[in-house]
Queue: 2 jobs
Job 1
Amino acid sequence: MIRDLPDSQNLLETALASLRAELLPNLPDHARYTGLMVANALAIVLRDLQAAEARRRIAETLTGLIGQDDAPALCAAIDAGRFDEPAPDATLRQALLTITRARLSISNPKALG
Amino acid sequence: MSVPSLSPEQLQALADWLTGQAGAATVRLADVRRLSGGAISVNLSMDLIIAGGPFAGCQPVVFRAGSPSGVSASLSKAQEAAVLRAAFDAGVTAPEPLFVQGDGALLGSPFYIMRRAGGVAAGHRLVKAPPSPALAHDLGQQLGRLHRLRPGAPGLDFLPLPAADLLDDCLTAYRGWLGEMAGLDPALAYGLRWLDRRRPAVGDLVLSHRDYRTGNYLVEAGKLTAIIDWEFAGWSDPMEDIGWFCAACWRFGRRDQEAGGIGDRADFYAGYEAATGRPVNHQAVRWWEVMAHLRWAAIAVQQAKRHVSGAEHSLELALTGRMLPEITHDMLREIDQMEAAA
C-alpha cells in the first residue's frame, strides 16, 4: 500500500483548524450559522476517524449482553421481552448507557458532562 | 435554504389578494424579510401598509406557507390557522391569524398571515437570562388555557381523534417514523419497549400544542409575547405537552432549570394548575418526558432521511440526524432516574 502524506486525519485536522482560525471569524452574519455547522460536521468526522477505542467498547458491551457484536439481534431480543425482568432490565440499561456514551464521544463529547 | 421565497410577481399577487381580503383601497408590502427557523415552513416577516377598510394602517405580520416536503403529522397551513384562531379566542398568547388562503391557488402552496409579535425565540439565548419564576408560571398558565379546549370545540372538527388507545397511537406512529432504525439502534428499541411496559393512566383529551417548548415562544423584556409553531397541534393527553416542555432535551443545556431551561418546574406546574383547576400528574409527566425523547429521536430520524433520500439536501437536517446519541442518552438517563425512584 502506498501511504499518502499527510494522511486523511491530518488533512482534515488542518482544514478544520483553518476554518476555525481564518474563515469563521471573518464570515458575515448570514453565513455564520452555516460556517459553524460545517465546522461541527468536520469535527464529527474527525472524531469518527479516531474512534477505534469507542467502537471496541461498543462491540465489547454488545457481546457482553447477547454473546455477539450484533445490534439488530439485541433489538430483536429487547422486542421479544428478554430483558423485561428487573435485573436484566437494569443490566441492559447500564450497557445501553455505556454504548450511547461511546457514540456521544464521537457525535458530541460536550454532552457527556 | 431549500424552500424558495416569493418572487416579485408573487408578492404583487399577494398584495392584490390582500386588498380584497382586507376590504382596503390599497395594500402595499413593505420590509419583506425571510425569518429563520423554517425547517418545515416558509416564514416571511412583512409590514402591510393598508389604506382604507377595517385594517387601515401599518400591520406588522408574518406570512407562513408550507414547504414542498412536509413532515408526517404536521397540519396544513389552513388547519394551522384554525388552531391558532381557537387558541387565540381561548385567551392564549398566540399570534392572531388575519388572512388565510387554504387551497394554494394563489401562490402554489397554502398560506396564512398572522400578527407579528416582537421578541426572541432562540432557546440557547433565552436560557442565558436569569431563571424567571414569572415566565415559567405564565407559560404554565398559557398551556392550561389551551388545555381547556376539548374535542367538539368549534372550528376544530378536522383534527382527528386518536384511536381507542392514545398511547398505542403514539407508539405506533413513532415506531413508524423510526422505520428500520427501531430495529438497528438498541437504545431506540429499549425506549419503545420501556414506554410500552410502563404506561401511565391517560387523562381526558385536550387541545394540545404538541411542540410546546423553549424555542417555540417569543420573549421580549422578560415577558412572553407569543406562542408559535402550531403545526403539530392535535387532541392528546394533557400531560404530553407538560412532559415535552420539561424534557431534558429541550432545556438547551440548563439542566437545572427543569421547566424548559428557563425556570422551575414547580412554578410552571403552579401556573398550569391555576388555569385548569386540575392537578398535574407528576408521574405521568415523567413518562411523557421519556416519550418526548423518543418522539424527538423519531423526528430527528425523519429529518435525516429527508436529507439522505435526496428529498431535501441540507446540512442542518444531516446534523440533526447525528444528534441521535445525545437524545437517546438523555432518554436513558431519564428512565434510569425513574427506575431508581420507583
Note: Residues 282-308 of chain B form the longest helix (27 residues).
Job 2
Amino acid sequence: MEKFTTLTGPACPINQSNVNTDQILPARYLKWTRGMGLGKVLFHDLRFRAAEDENPDFPLNKPAWRDAKILVAARNFGCGSSREAAVYALCDYGIRCVIAPSFGDIFAGNAVQNGLLTAAVTDDEAAEIIVLLTQMPTLHVRVDLEHQDIVCGDRTYRFTVDPVRRARLLNGWDDIDLTESYRAQIAAFRVKDREERAWATPAAGG
Amino acid sequence: MPSRPARCCVRMCGDSDATIDETCAPPDRSSLTLVQSGSYTILIVQGAYGPTGMSQPQTIIDKLWSSHEIVRRHDGESLLWVDRHYVHEGSFHAFAKLDQRGAKVAEPGLTFGVADHYVPTRGSRYDIANSEIARMVRQVESNTKKHDIRLFGLDDPRQGIVHVVGPEQGLSLPGLLIVCGDSHTSTHGALGAYAFGIGASEVAHVLMTQTIWQKKPQRMRITVTGKTAPGISAKDIVLSIISQIGADGATGCAVEFAGSAIRALSMEGRLTLCNMSIEAGARCGLIAPDAAAFAYVKGRPYAPAGAEFDRAVEVWSKLASDENAEFDREVSLDGGQIAPIVTWGISPQDALPIDASAPDPAREPNTERAKYLRDALDYMGIAPGKRLTDIAVDRVFIGSCTNARIEDLRAAAAVLAGRTSKVPGLVSAGSSLVKRQAEQEGLDRIFRDAGLEWGESGCSMCVGINGDLVAPGERCASTTNRNFRGRQGPGARTHLMSPAMVAAAAVAGHLADVRKLLGSRTV
C-alpha cells in the first residue's frame, strides 16, 4: 500500500452532510473492474446531468477543483453501502484525503486499506474550511499526517485520525502481511475454540 | 463477590516483528494456553476478561467480543475469529485479490456464497438477457466453485437474499461472529450474533485468514419501553429511532436493542430492526437471544441438533447483558408513542409519522438545515409543508433484506386482500423458500389479484443492479432500507415504510395510514 505522509493540492468543498457511497459511486458501476477507470464515474449522478453532460454547479466540475486531491465535506461522509469501489473511485480520480467531521465506519475502514486518509475536524472547522475554499478556490491545502494538521491559507487546523490507521497509512502496512505474523495464535485459537464451541461449526446436515 | 484476579502481562518475543503487550486479568488458569511456534513461545489469554477482571458486569457486546478475540495488540486493535463469512456476486474484487496472491480460502467450510444482488426477479433466471448481469452471476458461481465454497445459486431451492438465507438455514446463530461484504450484515444480530458489514479488502483478509482486525466499538443500548400500538411494526420502530438519533447517531457503536417493545417482536421483526442499525451508522446491532431466538434456530438445516443444541442453548442463555452492566451510551424511547412512519426525504433519518406534513424550509431557523430541507424536497418533488397523505405514488415495491420475510408478506397481503392496487408494483420474496411458503399460503394470489407482479427472490429494486429500476422522477413506496438519491435508479424517489404501509399506499394511490384500512384485519 502507498504510504501517506504529507499531501498538498487543490481541495474541493462538498458542502453536504451524509454523502453516501451510493452518491460517490452509483450502484450500476459496481460491475466494473478496477481497470475500467472508476475515477471517470466518481459522483457520476451529481457530476453529470446526462451522459457526457456535466453539471456545471457540481464543485468538482469547477476549473479550480477539477484536479482536487482533497475533499472537504460535512458530517457522516461515506455512510451507507459497504462498497469499497467508492474508495477506489475516489483514489482513481486522484483524491487521497477527505476532511470531514465524521465518516461512515465501513467507509473509513475501506479508506485506510487503500491509502486514503480520513481526517476528522469539528463541524465548525469543516464549515470554516468550506467557506475559505469557496472564497479562494485556488488555495492549495497541505495535510500533514505526522503532525496531524491541515494548513489552509494562514489557518492551521488539528485533525484526528485513529492512531492505528495513522500508523498504517504512515508505514504503508498491509493487513494480510501483518496477520501472517499471528498465524500461530490463530491456529491455537482455532483448536481450542473448535473444542469449546463445537456447536459453532455448521452442522453437516445442511 | 470474587476477589479481583491478579493482573498478568503477556509479551510475545522471538524473531517476529509482531508484539503483543497486553495487560489483563484472566478469569482462570484454563484460559491460558502455551503455544510453541518456531523459535518462540506464546502465552494466549482467552475468555471473558476485561481490564478490571471478571467481577465487572458485562454487556452482551463485551461477551461476544471476548469470546472471539484471538489477540489484542498494544495499540488496541483486536484480531477476531470469524465464525461465518457470506460472499455474493459483489465479492469479486476480494477473489481477485486472492488470485493476485495465489492464496487459498482458509476455511471454506465456514464460508457460504449466495447469488442475490444481480439475479433477475423476472424473465428467465438461467438465460439472463443482460450479458453483464449474467457475467456477475456466473462469476460468483466460478469463484465459489474454485475455492470449494457452498453456493446457494440460481439452481438452488434455498437461494435468496444473503441476510434472509443465513438465518433461514440456521447458518446464523446466537453467539457467532458473522461478516459479509454488505452493510446490512447487521441483520444477523437479531439472533444474538455479532454481525457487521465489511469492505472488499477485509473480505479478502477474512477469506485468507478467517480473522478480522477490529477496534472495540463503544457500547450503546437503545431501549424501547412499553408496548407498541396495533399495526405498528419493527420498521416503524427502527425508522423512529433513526429519525431521533440521526443517520450518524450510532456511528462508532455496537448497539444492543432492549426493552419490552423489542422483546415483544417476532424474530422476523427483530431481523428488520437489526438490519437497519447501519442506517443509524452503527457498527452492528443486536438483541440478546431468548426463548424466541432458540425456538427459531431449532431444527434448521445447519443449526446444531440434539445434545449439541442443548449445550449451545446453555451457552446462548448466558449471553444477555449482566444486570448493571455499563454502556457507553444509552438512548430510550417510549414504544407506545410510535406511529406508522414514512420517509419524506433522501436519508432514512428524514422520517415522520404518516399524519404529519413535509417540513417547510422557510420555518427552519438554521440556514444549513434549511438548505438541506430545500435540496431534499426539491429532489423528492414535494412542496414544503405538504401533508404526507397527499403525496401520490407511482409504484410500490415489497422486497429486500429488510422486509421480505414471510411475516412481511403476510402483513402486506392482509391489507391487500380483496383490494386492488391503484399503481403497478413488484413483490419479491426474501428467499426462494419464503416465496414457496407464500405460495402455499395463497399470498401470491392476493398480490396478483391486487394487480402486483409476483417475482423471484433477490435484492431486486432495493439496489436496482439486476435491472429492476424505478424510472427517473417516479415515486415508489418501498419496504427497503435506503431512500438515498438515485438508490432505486437514477432520479428515482423512494419513500421507506413497513410492508403494511406500502400495501396501504398501493390501495390508496398515495401515502396512507394503514390503520384506517385495517378494520377487523390484523397485520
Note: Chain B has three domains: 1-54, 84-218+280-328, 341-518.
